[in-house]
């Protein structure tokens, strides 16, 4: 199953760093947060990724083009035309497709643009700025049991985000970015059926509005409640908190050993 990662936004609330690179490329522990997300999915056996690029997408492409240089020891022999020899290759067994989904596209538009790379298959979908210790196997089981087109992971971060209304393990109302506090909100980490593409009109479609609102009205938007760790890197303060957790060995999303 492919993992689609939304990584094309401007990241205006962390502009201290996003003016130089897309937000998913901002580093935690000297690795882009995008890498952290991919490493987490890989721990559950998901090694094929489709990254929705947009703003400064070339930075993401250059990172993966030089991935061996980032992850391995390399000898450059300039007496032999600059021949490069890679030593102790420790790169992951990933297949990564980087798709230019437009600098101005909304989240739904970006998902719509990667449809040719998905085909008629179920896929995972998440945001390129959020880390969590969500049980992806349990999430997938919940999706299979629900029969929903989309099953999202609901978390409770407080009153900073929008609110989901949940009844009998189904989302009955989806109010993104509302002002109410204390409820369940969309934390990403979704499982999606290809029928979702039919709910997306064009590049201007915001995934969290018309498509998910329509699915919730049709009772086809499932939910998996996650009570553990979740954090999005939305601001410089968020980045500092994630960096602190990583440096102190308290990064709950680090499910790998290296």
Descriptive keywords:
258 residues, alpha/beta, Spore Coat Polysaccharide Biosynthesis Protein SpsA, Chain A, 2 domains, 8-stranded mixed beta sheet, two-stranded antiparallel ribbon, 16 strands, 28% helix
Question: Can you walk me through this structure?
Answer:
The protein folds into 2 domains: 1-133 and 232-253, Spore Coat Polysaccharide Biosynthesis Protein SpsA, Chain A (Alpha-Beta Complex), CATH 3.90.550; 148-187 and 195-228, no CATH class. Helix content is 28%, strand content 27%. The chain is built from 9 helices and 16 strands. Strands 1, 4, 7, 8, 10, 13, 14 and 15 form an 8-stranded mixed β-sheet that branches. It has a two-stranded antiparallel sheet with strand order 2-3. Strand 5 (73-77) and strand 6 form a beta hairpin.
Shape annotation: globular
Tally of domains: 2
Kindly report the CATH topology of the largest domain: Spore Coat Polysaccharide Biosynthesis Protein SpsA, Chain A
User: How many strands, what sense, and barrel or not for the largest sheet?
Assistant: 8 strands, mixed
- Poorly predicted runs are none
Which structural class best describes the helix and strand composition? alpha/beta
Proportion of strand residues? 25-35%
């Amino acid at each position: 199953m492919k993992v689609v990662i939304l990584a094309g936004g401007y990241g205006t609330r962390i502009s201290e760093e996003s003016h130089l690179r897309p937000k998913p490329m901002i580093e935690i522990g000297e690795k882009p947060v995008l890498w952290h997300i991919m490493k987490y999915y890989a721990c559950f056996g998901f090694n094929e990724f489709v990254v929705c690029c947009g703003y400064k997408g070339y930075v993401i492409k250059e990172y993966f083009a030089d991935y061996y240089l980032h992850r391995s020891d390399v000898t450059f022999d300039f007496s032999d035309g600059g021949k490069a020899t890679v030593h102790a290759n420790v790169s992951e067994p990933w297949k990564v497709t980087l798709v230019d989904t437009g600098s101005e596209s909304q989240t739904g538009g970006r998902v719509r643009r990667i449809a040719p790379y998905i085909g008629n298959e179920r896929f995972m979908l998440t945001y390129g700025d959020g880390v969590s210790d969500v049980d992806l196997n349990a999430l997938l089981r919940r999706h299979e049991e629900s029969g929903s087109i989309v099953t999202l992971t609901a978390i409770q971060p407080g009153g900073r985000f929008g609110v989901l209304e949940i009844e009998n393990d189904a989302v009955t109302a989806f109010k993104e970015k509302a002002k109410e506090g204390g409820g369940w909100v969309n934390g990403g980490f979704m499982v999606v059926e290809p029928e979702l593409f039919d709910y997306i009109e064009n590049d201007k479609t915001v995934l969290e509005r018309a498509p998910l609102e329509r699915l919730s009205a049709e009772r086809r938007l499932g939910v998996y409640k996650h009570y553990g760790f979740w954090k999005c890197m939305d601001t410089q303060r968020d980045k500092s908190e994630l960096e602190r957790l990583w440096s102190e060995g308290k990064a709950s999303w680090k499910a790998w050993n290296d």
